[in-house]
Amino acid sequence: MSARIIKINGPVVVADNAESLKMNEMVKVGKNKLVGEVIGLDHGKATIQVYEETSGLKIYEEVEGTGRLLSVILGPGMIGNIYDGIQRPLSELEKVGGAFIPRGVEAFPLPKDAKWQVTFLKDVGDEVNEGEIYAEVQERGIVHKLMVPIGVSGKIAKKSDKEEFTIDDTLYVLEDGTKLGMYQIWPVRIPRPSIKKLPSKIPLITGQRVLDTFFPISKGGTAAIPGGFGTGKTILQHQLAKWADADIIVYIGCGERGNEMTEVLTEFPELMDPKTGKPLMDRTILIANTSNMPVSAREASIYTGITIAEYFRDMGYSVAIMADSTSRWAEALRELSGRLEEIPAEEGYPAYLSSRIAEFYERAGRVETLSGEEGSVTVIGAVSPPGGDFSEPVTTHTKRYVKCFWALDKSLAYSRHYPAINWNTSYSGYVEDLKDWYSENVNEKWYEYRGRAMELLAEDGKLQEIIKIMGEDVLPDMQKLVVGIARVIKVGLLQQNAYSEVDSFCPLDKQFEMLKIVVDFYDRARKFVEMNAALSEILKGSIISKLMRMKEDYKTAEDLKELEKEIEEHFKELEKVYKE
Amino acid sequence: MAVVEYTGISSLRGPLLVVEGVKGASYDELVEIVYSGKTRVGKVIMLEEGKAVVQVFEGTADLDLPDTKVRFLGKPLEIGLSSDMLGRVFDGLGRPRDGLGEIIAKEKRDINGSPMNPVARVYPRNFIQTGISAIDGMMTLIRGQKLPIFSGDGLPHNELAVQISRQATIKEGEFLVVFAAIGLRNTDAEYILNSFEETGAMKNIVAFLNLASDPVVERIATPRAALTTAEYFAFDLGYHVLVIMSDMTNYCEALREISNYRGEIPSRKGYPGYMYSDLATIYERAGIIKGKDGSVTQLPILTMPNDDITHPIPDLTGYITEGQIVLSRDLHMRGIYPPINVLSSLSRLMKDGIGKGYTREDHPHLSGQLFASYSRVQEVRALASIIGEEELTDVDKAYLKFGEDFERRFLSQGRDENRSIEETLDLAWDILRDLPEEELTRVSKEEIEKYMKKGKSE
After folding, report:
1. Between chains, do A258 and B121 touch, taking CB under 8 Å as contact?
2. Residue A351, pLDDT score
């Protein structure tokens, strides 16, 4: 007798006669064959979380096991695709259900009719081991490497002699009869293995000054972007997805807006990757489980995304994953936990919230892969704290497991200072790790200049407290200078318009040049303040407004040399007046 | 399928009713409750072997255990749809309320709708001119957007909503308003309907009224009935539909009440943990679909309890909607209408719907400049309140004047005053003249030349 439903409570269903089901097994629920996963087994009863809307389900309808854990299918055809939380391709669902998402539809995640050219790397008689690369396929912007599945090894007995392959074809047959095909299957909740983790020494370059220059992240690193609504989390995530110098981007829209996913879908094919000159869509995989789609699939979407990321990492690529927003995922956990009648910990969240967050971020890292390559998964998670209050459980637990904290600030956003990353409360734990890379590849003084600018901002923070009470006029000139230069840093460096053609992406050498110009300007200006020169002369309006606009007016680091000359002139003029 | 009738009600609690001995009921199914010759409707919210928990939309008052009968209708809660609905008034469940008789339905649809496939959406980028400077200039409404008004008790949000829907002009296509009153006071609902009638707009409106005195549970269905109707007019008949839902706070209160009866574990302030997902199933029903002519634009109104924007209702709403228009009690007290607090307001879709080819080329920078300058005004005012205006620098004094002009000339306008986007933008340049040119860092030199200087010489 097969398992049958005896209780329905929203997305949670209980079935009896469930002895044959395994924990975390994928099941088909009811006569519409809704996709579900076993999340609890107790005395022949299975608790199942259903990934689709359960309306219309009846008591005693059947539950069918599939024999495998909730998994993703990994192979060529994923890039440029958009999936729901359980890896169903949304464009296939559109063909079946039209504009609205249908239920109980099975759709194979990889295109069945696509033809692939395969480069064989092994021959009959070769020994292959798990994780080893046996063939390559050119897929859009990248070389998609086919790897021996985990747990498989042996001698190749047969090799296909076809010219073109579809996704269901077999490439090799091993002596024990195992087939090596175009795709493999991996359960989403289990991290894919690697040989070892490597230290984080290379930055993920994002082209955003406030990140690269002030709070950098390494390839394989972790970062959280917490911020109340309207502080620009999503725009920042989009900017990172556009400009980060990763080989592959996995963008998870987890419980967010439908129109935002559509924006990515319309915009990315038009935009060019600054590194390769190819459309951004050629390196992007989207997972969209919008806020009105079933809540349990939202819970799964995070795992689907990171598993796909790990798969590309294993080919030796650097992958960056943007999860927008992990709070929605945590809320899905809470909602399901409530339906399961578990005892809640803080604010209704289950007690295992913290360990789930840890598990997720721990899947990031730079690793040596089974095939001996070097790959990385960088995880950047947005957090949406209720009321913008950073002391709530999701933010506090996330803070414990990430090394970069890019705190978005409501008051900055209100004054349209974007990206609204608060320089006082944000931090990056990678600055020391990346110091050597920056001094070799950008400028040996990067670390020093960065420190100087941070110091100026900190001092300005203190002075702003005084200004709030007494006005700027009471400050001595030296402090007014600090305030003036800090303003240049805030407006000229930290603010960056995502929609500007010139400034949306700022190359590292230009970033450094800008930083250097401002800090050097400060040092020289100090000398004149000491000589009692008039501050209005030193911070001449025309020069300051040039500094504020240099991000837009000078395209490259090279162009900025011109500005340096002008500054030189400016100080020479001053010198003439004050040096007698 | 034969409809089976059950009499075995075992318990009644708040709006919930438990029936025993049930066979073949399905989750979320529509239920009819028959008592002393009258009927009410409800839906199945939990099923166990032989037992169903039913949520009764009109409440359980007057029902009893032995005589009440329950029928399972084998379908979800549906609403009959037809183009005859134009100009009509319905109750919260979609039944005529104006005494003009039943609608002959062309089609019946589940009020819950289905999630729109992101692949099938069209990214919204067509500007809707509301004729209100603060909105058009600084938080532009886009066709297919969901842009709520965050208000407070006693603030003129209904007036603003009426003015927007009266003045909203779309360049092409037929325009229609669907109005859902959710737990609204009778006077407010009357005001809104009357305003439409006076201007002759009533023939282009479909209204769903659940008033404060109507059953609380019905409020769960009201916005859904309205949105199903809106989708029908937009995607089947090709109308551009503006849906006004007031007041979403009452909706959330109803949600909390039912959750409480169900004995669920509450999250913040007693609201259920799934409130975000639940609100999303309402707000996400705005948008445009590929290959269809119409659009659904939402203008939900909610009153922030105690004017607190961090309260779960505005907070969760803000995370789902594409921006917000926040009303300020302080501006209202100073007699400024509409009292829009521009600094905490935002339209997320604005960036792609303004500028060259949409509104005017200077619009993006100009609005950025207004935001930056007005935000500086707040700092200067705070300072002035401590050290006194006399002590301020000349630049700061200029900001004070700009702040005053911004509020009195740009923000303020008459309740019938309909400004074109050009008028709005020219007015913005005009008040920016209060500031020294060095302070205008967000606009380009060319724009200053073209729009500010030119205007001056005229």
Report:
1. yes
2. 94
